[in-house]
Design a protein that fits this description.
With 240 residues, this protein is mainly alpha-helical. It is 86% helix and 0% strand. It has helices spanning 2-13, 16-22, 25-68, 72-81, 86-103, 111-134, 137-166, 177-237. The longest helix has 61 residues, at 177-237.
Length: 240
């Protein structure tokens, strides 16, 4: 069948290593850069997915333990075991500051000053945990926004070189139109392949960035709520 034969011919000529090897060195550099961005992006997506999933799971476990148990020492031990939970690490920071104030016999002194010290400890821990959650995620945004344009640059340069090859030699005989198209076709294919690599690198990066941004926003909201709840408990039971 003619359609099947044409499709088979196209598949047979789509030789990716050959397209890369025959490309101009500028187009090769663009393809190499995009390939590196794609590989690094895939690594970040897998790593951050596992990290955020552990953080969410352990935060849920710690919240259950925190509200179910009435023994603060037991809660502290549980928090130390759940090191991937940003909420548990906030509790550890607040508990450590509370224990420091208790050891200084200062809990009955300046109530507002003690509460401010604990709040600062919680805020520092929240900042550290937020930085951990957001680490490497900006690279996905950079890849998603820049990879298509980098690929487009490779395409423009490839087509430019293809048309330069097509141009007649002023000191030589004129090139037949058929031979010119035959020689320029592979160069245009190489150029368009750079754009394809850019899209392959950008699309999963954008989707992953949006996903991680939403999940991190949820965890930050939970940290804000936990800070308020923890400070209220400290006010009621320790800084009366």
């Amino acid at each position: 069948m003619p359609g099947f034969s044409a499709a088979s011919a196209v598949a047979a000529t789509l030789d990716i290593p050959r397209l890369f090897n025959q490309a101009h060195w500028i187009v090769k550099s663009v393809m190499g850069l995009l390939a590196v961005m794609f590989v690094v992006g895939v690594y970040i997506i897998i790593y951050k997915w596992l990290y955020v999933r552990r953080a969410t799971t352990e935060s849920t476990r710690f919240n259950d333990s925190f509200w179910r148990s009435r023994d603060i020492e037991q809660i502290y031990k549980q928090a130390q075991a759940l090191k991937n939970s940003p909420i548990s690490q906030m509790f550890v920071a607040g508990y450590t500051e509370l224990a420091k104030l208790a050891s200084d016999a200062n809990l009955k002194g300046d109530r507002e000053g003690n509460l401010a010290n604990i709040e600062r400890a919680l805020r520092r821990a929240q900042l550290v945990e937020t930085t951990k959650l957001e680490s490497m995620v900006p690279f996905l945004a950079t890849t998603g926004s820049s990879a298509p344009f980098i690929g487009l640059f490779g395409t423009v340069m490839g087509i430019l070189f293809a048309f330069i090859d097509m141009a007649p030699d002023p000191n030589g005989p004129a090139k037949p139109a058929a031979s010119s198209l035959t020689s320029v076709g592979p160069h245009i294919a190489e150029a368009l392949f750079a754009t394809a690599i850019g899209l392959v690198a950008a699309i999963p990066a954008v989707m992953a960035y949006n996903y991680f941004t939403r999940r991190i926003r949820v965890l930050r909201s939970e940290m804000d709520m936990f800070e308020q709840d923890y400070l209220n408990i400290i006010k009621r039971h320790f800084l009366r």
